[in-house]
Amino acid sequence: MFNIKCMIVSGLALAMAGSLQAALTVNNLFGDHMVLPRDKHVSVWGTAEAGQSVSVTFAGQSLSCKTDKEGNWSVKLAPMAANAVPQDLTITGGNTLKITDILLGDVWVCSGQSNMEFKLASCKAVADIKAANMPQIRWTSVPGQEGAQPMTNVPDGMNWHVMSPDNAGGCSAVGFYFARKVNAATQVPIGVLCSAQGGSCIESWLSPEAICNYPQNAELAQRYHAAIDGWRDSLPLDDLGKWLVQIGKPLADAGISHPALAKLKQWQTLASAAVAHKNEAPAPPDVDDLKKWLASQNVPLPAMPEIPGHPLLRPKWFPGAHLYNGRIAPLTKLPIKGMLWYQGENGSGKLYYDRFKSMIETDRKQWQDEFPVYFVQLPNMEEDKNVPQGDVVEGWPTTRMQQLKCLQISRTGMAVTIDVGDPKNLHPTNKCDMGERLALWALAKDYHKKIAFSGPLYQSMRIANGKIILSFDHVGSGLMVGRKDPFKPAVEDMGGKLKRFAIAGEDKKWVWADAVIVGVTVRLSSPEVPRPVAARYAYSVNPAGCNLYNQDGLPASPFRTDNW
């Protein structure tokens, strides 16, 4: 009997010891139905018991490692070619994890604000959703997460989906139309990884390095440091800790306890550690019931200090980095093909180029890859005011000019959308043209298709005989007066006249110009301006009717030749 009891006790002890060991985990980026990057060294990483041996097998590769003293493990798969045949990834170390139905292809990160987050279902694209049986396209979205320090993992709940009519409505609409066009042209599996936040400004997506190490962001850096320091200094966590010690003894002596006190002490410990590292603290527990309970006791107690809030609980207020830290930093160990960007409605005006350049350069540094970034130029919006001087000095026209300037950054491309917006809706439902115009850049630059990928972009001007003569890049097979009906390709408007060109003389008074296509140029004139010096095209929030296209049906970007 004694031996049986010993065996039972020993068995329980072993079971308990096993339960205390850290279970094998893999980073939340990895999941069933994902697309694993092709042609690149791909890290697979996670956690387990310190000193645990971990093995990883995938596509004929078998790798092994041991966790470090903190329980972290990582292996790196050798580059593999694109493969649309589903395969499984098996990870073993104490317990076994199996990730199934993985394709090898290209992962594109889709980031920005609400128009990138905007779901296909919100486009009312019933036919596209019904036809979305696309097993080579996989999509996912990064759950909401912010922080004052770069994070290493995305939250639980980031699930990959095989694109199908059952789930396509939940995918980023821009990402869906981009992936559909690229996959149809290449047959390479495409992963759409959406990490976007409605209402976010570009500063939210800058890394701490982009904010602090770029002179052009100096003013932002001052606000960023002030917020971090102010948040740290505004939390009287030491006072709370002293109060918990003060009340601990009299309550214990009186035989009184309350679970809320234990929770409060735990929060104080976690928050203190977070503040010490300038990281995000968890939200404090509700203390109203605790205050009422303490008031009901007959033990004399000091006044309870206020439980403070902090800026990171108000992310729209916080001046930068919190969305990068929570939504981009955890992605940077997974190789990507490129990034798609749709942001600017909540923009930075004349600072947009500087912000965007610092974001791209530091993101590429973190990924250790000069990947391409293709972005959406702001579409037309609001009612048409039909004035040649432009209806605003700052605002969307200024941001569009800054976005046009962003093409100076290496490996960038811009989808012009001045003809597909919705004057009455900040969230236009025609995301098809937007996604497909982004896809044209990728197909031409990254998949080496010989196609037109941009509409006319202003190159230079000269003045001759009282006329301004404009030259353009990306003329393609020629310029045309175009007509664009919603959700249909642009066509040539035979007999139509160019609209929305304005010219001015030295007096800076703008008038509408007579605009004519001559070969691969546009010539502007007006009897009201005998000696013109500057020109503008589509320079307003909603330049309704702007109609310069190339013969490939792609619209010209708004532009201005002056710096007034």
Mean pLDDT: 90
Helical/strand content category: alpha+beta
Helix share bin: 25-40%
Describe the main β-sheet briefly: 11 strands, mixed
Our count of helices gives 13
As residue ranges, the low-confidence spans are 1-20, 311-316
- Determine the N-to-C terminus distance: 97 Å
Overall morphology? globular
Number of beta-strand segments: 25
Compute the gyration radius: what is it? 29 Å
Percentage of β-strand residues? 15-25%
Summary?
This protein is α+β, with helices and mostly antiparallel strands and 564 residues long. The protein contains 13 helices and 25 strands. Strands 2, 4, 5, 7, 8, 9, 10, 11, 12, 13 and 14 form an eleven-stranded mixed sheet that branches. It has a four-stranded antiparallel sheet with strand order 15-16-22-21, with no helix packed on it.
Can you walk through the features of this model?
The protein is α+β, with helices and mostly antiparallel strands. Among the domains are: 235-309; 454-564, no CATH class. It has 13 helices and 25 strands. The strands form five sheets. Strands 2, 4, 5, 7, 8, 9, 10, 11, 12, 13 and 14 form an eleven-stranded mixed β-sheet that branches. A four-stranded antiparallel β-sheet has the order 15-16-22-21, with no helix packed on it. Strands 20-19-23-25 form a four-stranded antiparallel β-sheet.
Which features characterize this protein?
27% helix, 11-stranded mixed beta sheet, 25 strands, alpha+beta, 13 helices, 564 residues, 4-stranded antiparallel beta sheet
Topology:
Elements: H1 2-20, E1 25-26, E2 35-37, E3 42-47, E4 53-58, E5 61-66, E6 72-77, E7 83-93, E8 95-112, H2 114-117, H3 126-130, E9 137-141, E10 161-162, H4 173-186, E11 190-196, H5 208-212, H6 218-233, H7 237-253, H8 259-276, H9 288-295, H10 322-328, E12 338-342, H11 352-367, E13 373-376, H12 396-405, E14 412-415, H13 431-445, E15 457-464, E16 467-473, E17 479-483, E18 491-492, E19 501-504, E20 510-512, E21 514-518, E22 521-525, E23 534-537, E24 548-550, E25 559-560
Parallel strand pairs: 2-8, 8-11, 8-12, 9-11, 12-13, 13-14
Antiparallel strand pairs: 1-3, 3-6, 4-5, 4-7, 7-8, 9-10, 15-16, 16-22, 17-18, 17-24, 19-20, 19-23, 21-22, 23-25
Helix pairs in contact: 4-13, 7-8
